[in-house]
Design brief:
The protein has about 325 residues and is of the alpha/beta class. The protein has 3 domains: about 80 residues, Orthogonal Bundle (Arc Repressor Mutant, subunit A), CATH 1.10.10.10; about 80 residues, D-Maltodextrin-Binding Protein, domain 2, CATH 3.40.190; about 100 residues, 3-Layer(aba) Sandwich (D-Maltodextrin-Binding Protein, domain 2), CATH 3.40.190. The chain is built from 11 helices and 13 strands. β9, α8 and β10 form a beta-alpha-beta unit. α1 packs across α2, α1 crosses α3 and α5 crosses α11. It starts with a strand and ends with a helix.
Amino acid sequence: MSHRDVDGKAEVRPGARQPPALPDLNLLRTFLAVYRLGSFTAAAHTLGVSQPTVTTQIRSLERQTGRELFERLPRGVVPNSVADELAARVAAPLDALGRAAGSGTGEGARAEPVHLAGPAELLATFALPALGPLVAEGVRLRVTPGLTDPLLDELRAGRHDLVIATSRPRGRALTWVPFTDEEFVLVAAPVWADRVKERLAEEGPGVLHTVPLVSYAEDLPIVRRYWRHVFGKRLDCRAAVTVPDLRAVLAAVVGGAGFSVLPRYLCTAELASGALVPLGDPEDPPINTGFLVRRPGVCANPDVDRVRDHLVAAARTG
């Protein structure tokens, strides 16, 4: 119980229950950065402070609230339900405060570009053409090509907002949705197809050992998968040409360098024109599912959600 003192102010009697003090705004800003980025390191980089400072502030906030907020993983952190509830309460006020202070980082700000990463071929042939209308509306993009595993590590560290991955991410530090299905096809230029296509159907894949192989990588990941799935055999062949860009593989095969396995979306025009010939027509061709991946939590940049939703819609209709 409280009573009024002589100045009319409320006085709290000793032993009276007081409302809990609100956490410091700096702690809440740090919490929101970690929540959105999924990483203490990435939050430190964004906030311009050291990683130990972020760790100390999160621990201080957890002591004040009396609840753990994040599950610590080998790579990054995952918010729990307590963190979800806290973020829902503080995100809008903190974003509004950031806008009022002119930081340009609050919800609705359009200063920050969306950092998108993925395989060079999918970025060039699908993602960038699909995102053209958003760019025309003012969305800014920073695009990075690369291999899935390194790109996912960089996503966890906060370097990217969205990654198109050719395999499903492991662990709980990232969220994803199925994005594309790639059908793989065994192809060669007519000069080679005329020599081996009929023999391949009669004698099996061994006849291709006399044809140069063009591959995406030295360990032949796509071709090996095709061999296991379609022929039920282990590939026993070395590449004549390796080039880490499927568009370059396509160009080499069209030019008569040999045979390869390519995603159908990449060589549809060449198959239609006869520049490439499919060497087989399996009833169950190998298919690889791609995923659109991001960190969990609410993102400060609304354009990230716009890019994600636009890509998912384009993949479903295309």
